[in-house]
Amino acid sequence: MSTTAKVLRYVVLVPLTLLFVSPLVFMLVTSFKTPGEAVQTPPTWWPDPFTTQAYERIFQATDTPVLRWFANSMIAATANAAIVVVTASLAAYALARLDFRGKNVVFALVVSTLFVPPVILVIPNYEIVGRLYWLDTLLAIIVPTAASAFGVFFLRQFFAQLPRELEESARLDGANRWQIFLLIVLPLSRPALATLALLSFLTNWNDFLWPVYVLFSPENQTLQAGLSTLQSANSVRYDLLMAGAVVASVPVLLLYLLAQRFVIEGVSRSGLKG
């Protein structure tokens, strides 16, 4: 790449980076402002005075158990991601490697569910969760989305690109289908599995509508649903809202930084072949 091309590249990338990062920086800065400065016009880019009272308020108040909400969200998102990876990998391998009547029809039906708006399923899922006595429990936000059509499609595309020769060699050595899946296919699919786990975690972590419907007790709320109460309970304290948003953003940013290599590799190697 020539020097001119490199300069032009950074001329484009630097403003775009600043554009996308500035809201995060402003959110972080506002969380350390006083309530008055948080709504000051024009806004300031550095708190004066610098204070941590917003964090002290959300962590110490009994009516906003943020740490409990954080733990609930972490448990629910982690459990949901684990179940999605297990169920999607099993279904995807069957659709990619096993030969059975109606396989293409089953795959088409799975993919077709991606076109169904999730909001349509709120009432049916609510009825099912209620009949199972899971309302106001974490099971209500873990299990209903554990069967991921996107996960099946994503992993099926990845599995279809793996060399069949590796599986055939293992079969000649006496390995059965289950051993091939566990010892060969899954280790080779770690980038795709990590990508799916990350996407599933983020989807569950950021979900707001469904937890609001099925979780009622303050101590059972997830972080996204619980933070919404800060606005009504505290007359729009923007310093509190931004502090809560920072708490909700930290795990997501750390998780993406740790898994970005797998995400890039998993996405680049999936969806290239039908």
* CATH fold-level assignment: MetI-like fold
Helix/strand order? HHHHHHHHHHHHHH
* Number of structural domains: 1
Mean residue pLDDT: 85
Distance between the termini: 34 Å
Number of strands: 0
CATH architecture: Orthogonal Bundle
Structural summary, described in words:
- With 274 residues, this protein is mainly α.
- It has a single domain (23-268), classed as MetI-like (MetI-like fold).
- The chain contains 14 helices and no strands.
- It has helices at residues 3-30, 35-38, 53-60, 66-97, 103-112, 122-131, 139-142, 149-159, 164-172, 177-188, 190-206, 209-214, 223-233, 238-268.
Give a brief description:
By secondary structure, this protein is an all-alpha fold. It has 14 helices and no strands.
Which descriptors apply to this entry?
mainly alpha; single chain; globular; about 270 residues; MetI-like fold
Write the layout of secondary structure elements.
Layout (H helix, E strand, L loop, with lengths): L2 H28 L4 H4 L14 H8 L5 H32 L5 H10 L9 H10 L7 H4 L6 H11 L4 H9 L4 H12 L1 H17 L2 H6 L8 H11 L4 H31 L6
Helix pairs in contact: 1-14, 3-14, 4-8, 4-11, 4-13, 9-10, 11-14, 13-14
